Amino acid sequence: MDVLKKVPVREQDPKVRATNFDEVCLGYNIEEAKEEASRCLKCKNPKCVDGCPVSIDIPGFIKEVEAGNIEEAAKVIGQYSALPAVCGRVCPQETQCEQRCIRGIKGEAVSIGKLERFVADWSRENNIKPEPPKETNGKKVAVIGSGPAGLTCAGDLAKLGYEVTIFEALHEPGGVLVYGIPEFRLPKETVVKTEIDNVKALGVKIETNVVIGKSTTIDELMEEEGFQAVFIGSGAGLPKFMGIPGENANGVFSANEYLTRNNLMKAFDENYDTPIAKGKKVAVVGGGNVAMDAARTALRLGAQVYIIYRRSESELPARVEEVHHAKEEGVIFKLLTNPKEILVDEKGWVKGMKCVEMELGEPDASGRRKPVEKPDSEFEIELDTVIMSLGTSPNPLISSTTTGLETDKRRCIVADEKNGQTSKEGVFAGGDAVTGAATVILAMGAGKAAAKGIHEYLSNK
Amino acid sequence: MYKIVKKETLAPNIYLMDIEAPRVAKSCYPGQFVIVKMDEKGERIPLTICDYNRDLGTVTIVFQTLGTSTKRMAEYEVGDSYRDFSGPLGCKSELVDESDEELRKKHILFVAGGVGTAPVYPQVKMMKERGIDVDCVIGARNKDLIILEDEMKKVAKNVYVATDDGSYGMKGNVNDCIKDLVQNQGKQYDLVIAIGPVIMMKFVCILTKELGIKTIVSMNPIMVDGTGMCGACRLTVGNEVKFACVDGPEFDGHLVDFDESMKRQQMYKTEEGRAALKEKEGDTHKNGGCGCSDK
Ligand SMILES: Cc1cc2nc3c(=O)[nH]c(=O)nc-3n(C[C@H](O)[C@H](O)[C@H](O)COP(=O)(O)OP(=O)(O)OC[C@H]3O[C@@H](n4cnc5c(N)ncnc54)[C@H](O)[C@@H]3O)c2cc1C
Ligand SMILES: Cc1cc2nc3c(=O)[nH]c(=O)nc-3n(C[C@H](O)[C@H](O)[C@H](O)COP(=O)(O)OP(=O)(O)OC[C@H]3O[C@@H](n4cnc5c(N)ncnc54)[C@H](O)[C@@H]3O)c2cc1C
Ligand code: SF4
Ligand code: SF4
Ligand code: FES
What residues of chain A lie within 8 A of the CB of B24, using their CB? Predict the structure, then answer.
């Protein structure tokens, strides 16, 4: 074994996986996990922990893995994270815990994410469940949204003895974990459902099909239904479009629509009723994780797929691993390219896209070099489907129906980072609804902080 | 689970159901809609709220069977339950928040086409409850397809019926009827609220624009979530892109791009759905279920 290298993780062959929706990464088995765990130096001053937004005791759990005490390892992680099987899969580890890993100074960092995933999967397979609290304290808290922020906040509060009800607008709990991130990266039935069941096992009630702001309001929950505090974890689901000609043509989708049809509504499975326009030649506009997910989904539905991104490869906001997987599977990257117009046939369907080549100019406010159009470089590509993946912002449904809730100019709810407190008494918020589209682990961290904030608030009341 | 407590067949292929959904019943208003998902494998089907009883906690829906989903919905009987029933979604009708005094000053005409009579009903009923007289035109292809006429007569001051084949009421489509009212019977209206097939709403709007009467329509584009998350329901209103599920479904009909909306609605029309439409309405969509005529 070469201690400088990660123990490789088994993956489905790219050619095979490009035609199915099964998980790409197969994870470690116990021998591989123990071997990888032995690479960890169990540092006295573990830098990796500083890189983790929820400060998991990484050497602590890795030590248990090395010794083969997986149940113990699960308990260590459980003190910090409610969704380890999810984070082990989708956290951008390479810019968080693993980036700081001391092992990584010379050679490759320890595969912290893959080890975390192993521990969580092992616990699930061996039916380890969290213990529900012994008694409740009789205080009711409402949580809006069942994404990572809401689930974490609800789980932590339940452990402290609160009676928690989650209100979810859609018919399934999980937020982006069920409607956005595809099956081949995050299996729904095994991984996501189990983590949600674990939260339910703590005594948390989940009421689906309740749209806060429509079915009822925060004011009503507090005044009429006896909730003493509310946590808003409603995410940032509102899709953006470019505003170019042809964007309302048939065959132009937001990434959210395309992914929701396929993930939440399971359109890829013909036993389900929801249709999806599969497309033969698909362009995905954008370069983030969401764009990669949409592209790889379209590929699996049988299309030839382009990623259209206006900057260069090094600016792609998606995780390196996702870009690598997309390329392996055959997604074609058209970088430094920007759409100008979607071309539409007489029946109103997409027939192509007019694009322009870009080059990188001076750095902009974000420090990234700003793309500018190359003169006379317009060209057309033939397409039947276009998926817009340009980012999302928080939905105004809640902020516009709650009195005294302050938002900023990006429509994000204003909340204290330390405890989630908003401008309205008894109302806390966190996750994408506060930060704008971010990551699962940051949303979880915010859910945790708010649970603590709510506990303090209700204890002093 | 949301229990079906009443089921009626209003016309061939048009069904009315009362569903137990206390949260929706408590907070809904005319103009809003719900999303029904029958079972694990079903799609999310948007349907307008046609009535509600806050005391009993029930909501009434009326739907027409077209393709797979609506046909499957019709197989459910009293005592069965739908898995999901989410709402109320969308904005309430503008009339809800207008004062009685303002409304009394207006002469309002409701225009209902085919199954669109069902979503018109709660609005007319609300006007009656607030003591405001309104007129209503109901159009359909033939007598059998006229629904909720008796109910409507109880709440509207005047109900005018038009059928394409003349089997009941006036022979002609809803536009012929509106023209007759305004041009021959000396009626004056300041506001028209038209709900029915998109093609009917389009032609009503062309006419009311000529007549100079402000017109509200209720759009029914393809939807997925109904909460503003997917953008499937987008349409162009006065050169702006709107999401019907959160900005609508009611819009100023003189600003809506109906042609784009009709094209978008075709996106997933199944063969069955298409066959049923063709069987009913013919290739050219002449004499649409509403009683309107094509270009
Ligand atoms: C396609 C895709 C891929 C991604 N990939 C990654 C990745 O690889 N790694 C990573 O770390 N992050 C990834 N992200 C980002 C990550 O998923 C989000 O940052 C995270 O899910 C945010 O969590 P949240 O709990 O704040 O909100 P969400 O997960 O968005 O959950 C919000 C929930 O609130 C519900 N809701 C909204 N409004 C209401 C209302 N009015 N009433 C009731 N309920 C409401 C919504 O239906 C939803 O279920 C990805 C996102 C997408 C879309
Ligand atoms: C806000 C709103 C309110 C509505 N209210 C009513 C109502 O009160 N009564 C009623 O009978 N119908 C109503 N509709 C239309 C109803 O949702 C469709 O008739 C139904 O979805 C058709 O499904 P299908 O599978 O039976 O038909 P098919 O024709 O086989 O449909 C195939 C696909 O196209 C989509 N689709 C087709 N037509 C429509 C449409 N008009 N609107 C949205 N999606 C469509 C569906 O996603 C479906 O999967 C409403 C639609 C909206 C958006
Ligand atoms: S939660 Fe994410 S950042 Fe923290 S240790 Fe796990 S993979 Fe790393
Ligand atoms: S920094 Fe790396 S080597 Fe050190 S404890 Fe963390 S994972 Fe182990
Ligand atoms: S139905 Fe998804 S945004 Fe309107």
Answer: 215
Supply φ then ψ for residue A238, to 5 degrees. Answer: -80, 115
Closest CA to ligand 2's atom 13: B47
ipTM: 0.89
Q: Which structural domain range is residue B61 located in? A: 2-89
Average pLDDT over residues B214-225: 94
Residue nearest to atom 4 of ligand 3 (CA): A52
Beta bridge partners of B240: B237
Q: Which amino acid, one-letter code, is at A91?
A: C
Rg, Å, chain A Cα set: 23
CB proximity A385 to B under 8 Å: no
User: Does A241 contact B241 at a Cβ distance shorter than 8 Å?
Assistant: yes
For residue range B23-74, what is the model confidence (pLDDT) as tens digits? 999 999 999 999 999 999 999 999 999 999 999 999 999 999 988 889 999 9
What's the CATH fold of domain A10-125? Fumarate Reductase Iron-sulfur Protein; Chain B, domain 2 (1.10.1060)
Nearest CA in chain B to A398: B227
Residue-level pLDDT at B290: 40
Q: Does the beta-carbon distance from A248 to B268 stay under 8 Å?
A: no
How many domains, in total, are found in chain B? Answer: 2
Distance CA B198, CA B189 (A): 22
Asked whether the beta carbons of A223 and A425 are under 8 A apart, the reply is no
Tell me if A248 and B264 make a contact (CB, 8 A cut-off): yes
Q: Cis before residue B249, ω within 30 degrees of 0?
A: yes
